[in-house]
Specification:
With 172 residues, the protein is an alpha/beta fold. The protein contains 5 helices and 7 strands; from the N terminus they run βββααβαβαββα. It has a single domain, classed as Dehydroquinase, class II (Rossmann fold), CATH 3.40.50. α2 runs parallel beside α5 and α3 runs parallel beside α4.
Length: 172
């Protein structure tokens, strides 16, 4: 978590991660967060902008990178339209990641295999959707992932991703 620190000149810095304090406390390494984007999200900005908005996937990733830097976290990004590639990527994160932000898009509603992969690696994750899926077609009202997710954030557009990242990095 980011920590504010008073500098000698009186200004306040926000450090990217906890550093050793004057008592010699050891620094905690930065949290590692993986962001996974499912099918069709590479088309954001041009695909049905009246539904998904005009923000591109690159813009979402850039905002998340900036937020992660501010919060002292390391962040990686992965996007695929292939279910198997998403599953293999989740498997590859075991031991390499502290949390996942995932927008599995249409696979959220249908993929038991992706759900099982996320449950199997045991990495805390937040499911996100740009739109309020509960205000859309009935086929989108069910999530195969939600029961094993730490939380689900829907309906806030690109901000949904930032809210998910903040939630994963929040310490009680």
């Amino acid at each position: 978590m980011a920590r504010k620190r008073r500098r000698e000149d009186g200004d306040t810095d926000v450090t990217g991660h906890d550093e050793a304090d004057v008592e010699g406390e050891l620094a905690r390494p930065p949290r590692r967060i993986a962001v996974i984007h499912g099918p069709n999200l590479n088309l954001l900005g041009t695909r049905e902008p009246h539904i998904y908005g005009t923000t591109t996937l690159d813009q979402i990733n850039d905002r998340l990178k900036d937020l992660a830097d501010d919060l002292g976290a390391q962040i990686t990004f992965f996007q695929s339209a292939r279910e198997g590639a998403l599953i293999e990527h989740v498997h590859s994160l075991l031991g390499r990641c502290d949390g996942i932000v995932i927008n599995a898009a249409g696979y959220s509603h249908t993929s038991i295999a992706l759900r099982d992969a996320l449950a199997g690696v045991g990495i805390p994750f937040v499911e996100v959707h740009l739109t309020n899926v509960y205000a859309r077609e009935p086929m989108r009202h069910h999530s195969a992932l939600a029961d094993v997710a730490r939380g689900v954030i829907v309906g806030f557009g690109a901000l949904s991703y930032e809210l998910a990242l903040g939630a994963l990095l929040h310490e009680d």
